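Run log, item B.
One chain of 294 residues. Sequence copied directly from the ordering sheet:
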Amino acid sequence: MKYLDKNAETIIEIKNLEFSYEDAEKKKSTVLKGINLSIKKGEFLAILGHNGSGKSTLAKHLNAILVPQNGSVAVEGIDTANENALYDIRQRVGMVFQNPDNQLVATIVEEDVAFAPENLGVPETEIRKRVDYALDAVNMSEFSKHAPHMLSGGQKQRIAIAGVLAMKPDVLVMDEPTAMLDPIGRREIIETVKKLNREENITVVMITHFMEEAAQADRVVVMNRGESVMEGTPKEVFAHVEELKKIGLDVPQTTELLYLLKKSGVEIKQDLLTVDECVEEILGRLEKGEVANG
């Protein structure tokens, strides 16, 4: 397990961020309300929230797809509102979206990964190195000559991630990257993301609505109605079962089981996330006769 260095430098700083959308009738809808958030270098941060909570709008501010209407977002000290710094910001922060088909542009995998560096005028020898590095990083080197449309959903998403990695970003922002995938594809992506974070020290910000995915992050931020309402380690956040349910969110299945046991009168730890931890705790209670067997 990777432990986050609490003294790590801040790579993205968000201060008093506010943002509203305007409909056809010029009616404003406030989506972000005074968000303050510091993201550390090398961190794996998960952002949770139900639909309409503002999490995707927040993600789009991290690489200047959107810019603050009030407040500020700084990437390695660069203000995202500075139009002249757009290239520098997007070299530092790469974005992966829900649907990988929207990010695949070529008919051959390695050509797709090379697309962005080529458009930036990166020398051919350097592009070859970047493509090889990116495909290896997502465990897709053997598919370099394949057609992207012939791949599974999880494989396509890994190619989309490789295309971003070829830009050599410091931060990888993922907006619900597993939402359209089956359980196998979701597992592939999470393992890939964890590997990049652990071995390449890439800062990861992942928007997700899957609690089991968020449980594997270093830190979790919970959003509701445009505000950050909870923040902490996964164990700290998921211990607040009732509060999360009140705002329409679930908790990992292990957390739910422990919560129900405690509700039924069993004094049992509530800060366990993995199945192994949960099994060990329940077996220990069974041996002591503290949990009814059967």
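Observations after the first pass:
- The CA atoms of residues 21 and 29 lie 5 Å apart.
- The mean pLDDT is 89.
Flagged for discussion on Thursday.
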